[in-house]
Amino acid sequence: MNSLRNKLFWQLDYLKGNPIKNNLKNIEELSNLSFEELKAKNSNQIRKLLNTVIGKTDFYRPYAGCQKLEDFPVVNKTIIKENFERINIPLGKGDKLHSVSTSGSTGTPFKVFQSSQKKYRNSADTIYFAKKSGFNIGDRLLYLRLWAAYYRKPKFLAWMQNVEQLDVEELNDTFLSKFLRKLTRDKQSKAWLGYPSGFLKICNFLDKNESPPLAGNIKSIIAMSEPLDSHVKDRMEYYFQCPVVSRYSNVENGIIAQQMSNRSGFTINWASYHVEILDMEKDEPAPYGEPGRIVITDLYNFATPMIRYDTGDVGVMNLGNHNGFPEFLSIQGRITDLLTNTKDEIVNPFVVYNNLYKYPELEQVQLVQKSESNYVFKVNSKKVFEREAEFISFFKLYLGEDANISIEYVTEIPLLKSGKRKIIVNES
Asked: Best exposed site among 80, 97, 177, 197 by fewest CB in 10 Å?
């Protein structure tokens, strides 16, 4: 049945003129070039995009004299929202606008339009990077996220696409016991795609029941939307006998980067985006190896152009070692969630993510930075936390020996609208 779904997918694409297949072929060809060769190829696409926005939008018309991408302004969600009508490219003949929206979990609800070409490009990107992690079209996809009404697929479409929609809010012991029994009986090839916080719930359930590895025929595991810490990665790989990789993407653009199996760095989707790491304060390049703002130019959206779009995320870029392609050494989350120590130095958030597993008695933890030297750990624990002093001493090693760290006991740390739960919040 999986192979039949695969054939049907490509047959439907063929009837439309092979738009996804042609984009996929282009992505594969570009990814096999050297970085200098790819940049030369992409320069034509960048020039086409810039000429289009200069000629067809009020927002970019004043930049007619600009010769290169770096001459264009850096924009963000606020700028695009405030100039939405002036920044959109008028609909071309035979094209169709596709609206995509974020949930506003960061406090900024956001909507953009995508052209049909962009939708096809996104599909090709998804197929390319999914295949890199071991997933093929037609395989059963265990999709673990918050399934709000506007995301949930109709039952027939989900069946046709072989997608099982698992809601992170429904992962109680009763559900997991039944689901995991069904998982081991189902012999078809399967893949996980979901929030690391959801994967953690599954692993905690299996740990609690002292489960051995499961024979679920899992071929691919991709973590998305939240940081993937080493504990969740190790436990998922143990129970499902499959490498786990992390994906960096957003709703308004698509897949920007993804880890490859057995590699810690993130392979950037240079075939579909031009990516810059800019200084935290100025619109100038940040040095390799230093944290900076992730700014992307979407090469294929000719509806709401995303030119030098500040994603709001922070990353570190490295030169990499594959045909000269720069890669993300790390992706450190949103600027608003950056953690700093008492010397105002950025602290890698994985210091928190990768060490919470040492305190399994804690149900939920959130670190709130109140000021330069004041921190509060919100802790949800069913039992008395007897290692409180040890916990505070441990994190002082990273936040500063002069850090004022307190613990606030709560009954629940609320989810964001997106179904994700922030581990770090910076209110300073």
From this structure: 177
What residues in the chain have per-residue pLDDT under 50?
A: none
Model pTM score: 0.85
| Confidence (pLDDT) at 107 | 53
Alpha-carbon distances, residue 359 vs 76, 184, 233, 354 (angstroms): 38, 30, 17, 11
Task: Please give the Cα distance from 244 to 303 (Å, whole number).
Answer: 34
Residue 423 is predicted with a pLDDT of 82
- DSSP codes joined into one string, 232-288: HHHHHHHHH-S-EEEEEEETTTEEEEEEPTT--SEEE-TTTEEEEEE-SSSSSBPPT
Per DSSP bridges, beta strands 339-340 and 346-347 are antiparallel
The pLDDT score that the predictor gives to residue 105 is 52
- CB distance 144 to 168 below 8 Å: yes
Confidence at residue 270, expressed as pLDDT on a 0 to 100 scale: 97
Cβ pair 21, 274 in contact under 8 A: no
Torsion sign (Cα): 211, 217, 219, 223: negative
If DSSP codes are grouped into helix, strand and coil, which group holds residue 23? Answer: helix
